[in-house]
Amino acid sequence: MASGRDLGGSLIEWCFDRDLTLSELLTGVDGDRLLAALKVLLAGPLRLVDTTDQVLLGSEVPAAARRVVIKGELEPLGYLEALATEDALRAAAQLLELILRGAARYQMASDLHLEAVSEDYRELQRRHDALQASEARYRALTATLEQQVASQVQTIDNARRQLYQSEKLAAVGQLAAGVAHEINNPIGFISSNLSSALGYLTKLGGFSESLAAHETSPLRTVWREADLDYVLKDFAALMQESLDGARRVTRIVADLKGFSRVDNAAIAPADVNEIIRGVCNVSRGQTEGRVELVLELAPLPVLECNAAALGQVFYNLLSNAVQAMEGQPAARLRIATLQREQGIVIALADNGPGIPAEVLPRIFDPFFTTKDVGQGTGLGLTVCTDVVHAHKGRITVQTRQGAGTEFTVYLPLPD
Length: 415
What we know:
Elements: H1 22-25, H2 31-42, E1 46-50, E2 55-58, E3 66-71, E4 76-82, H3 86-212, H4 218-225, H5 228-260, E5 268-270, H6 272-282, H7 284-287, E6 292-297, E7 303-305, H8 307-324, E8 332-340, E9 343-350, H9 380-390, E10 394-400, E11 404-412
Parallel strand pairs: 6-8
Antiparallel strand pairs: 1-2, 1-4, 3-4, 5-7, 8-9, 9-11, 10-11
Helix pairs in contact: 3-5, 3-9, 5-6, 6-8, 8-9
């Protein structure tokens, strides 16, 4: 195959520091029309190949076909082969280079336009990213402010509830102090007099035994006719029952004072079991004859705590359980304590109807109550939570419809 000489002329160096290949230049050219025009000019078969001899236009040509180079700036782009005269082949090559030069300019303009559009898009994207970053900072600031506001509101709400609780305990303490003062003195001499009266009855019993030895005595006859042996025995029983009642009143007053802790500092060593026993004694009027109260109190270490506040927690939980089982036959409340995980666990489990699923998530919310208007403030369990959290503890609840509810209080012991 004869080699043609360099036809001269070069294509411009294509944009962005690289030369376009012949295949890339032909991308924007109608290949069928270009092939048809070249066939007319060269009057026969032809083919256009790149520098690797890959056919881009045309088909096989005779072995005697000539070849002429299609050049770019420095390097060949490809070759035009045809069975034609050298002049015709050179003219076709020049025409092809002109076409490719136009295609190169178009491609360069297109690339420049795309680059400009891309740069504009990148600039818009940068601005968009900056706006998004600014918006994210604004949202973060808004969230922080909302959290701070919510925290302040929570702090104020907690302080208000603690003030309510403190005033309530103070009122209970004042009432307990007044009741204790008014009752302790008369109950003291009543107990003393009853004890003395029992001693006198013991002496009368001795006199009765002595009188029994004189069956014929008129005094013995009168004693027997009046059935004074029975009276003496029954009178002793009555006096003992009265003395037991007086002692119970004394114990209730002591439990009431202990429940309100009017004589103790706010934080002091206390036996949690004794707090629970005091609460149960004070609440006897609510539970006696209505609820079977079962105490399973294991030995516990002394706890540094606000005994009055903890007493209020146990009282609220006990009262809620009793009210939940109102009118229920075989109502039962179990209060158990034990030491576990470096802390004290107090569990109050009833066999009542359980807490409805739609109510359960809100039972610790302030002012939420299922009682009738005027029957409750909705702060009982909220105060319980505040007090337990103040002792660095936690309070949880488990319930099942128709199977009862169990509240568990965990109070950590100091390291």
